[in-house]
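Standup notes, protein team

Yesterday: finished cleaning the Pedobacter boryungensis set.
Today: DHCW motif cupin fold protein structure.
Blockers: none.

Input for DHCW motif cupin fold protein:
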Amino acid sequence: MSNIPFQSINWSKVEKTEHQGNTGISYWQTLQFEGLRIRLVEYSKGYLADHWCKKGHIVHCLEGEFSSELEGGEVFILTKGMSYIVSDDLSSHRSITKNGVKLLIIDGDFLKLDGHS
């Protein structure tokens, strides 16, 4: 991963892309650096992710509430001000929200399991 000089982020100027879920839509605003991705993500009302994600993330809930469901059946409810963290390939998960949510999601090479590239 390369060094990142100080910079402020004006999210209103970052392009928003649309991603369809099984139900609902997610909107991503993404900054990509070498080995690091930072996203502001909004899930619409009734959003259910279209896949089980194996990627590691740091997820912080900025507004609303959502559930992070693990493939094994456990469900964690996160509300404004709460976060979760998981490394790559440790827990397949998917997001669900009834009323919509806004998240800050950070992921990258630092979340890879030891010994994996």
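Follow-up from PR in the comments: The two ends are 13 Å apart (CA to CA).
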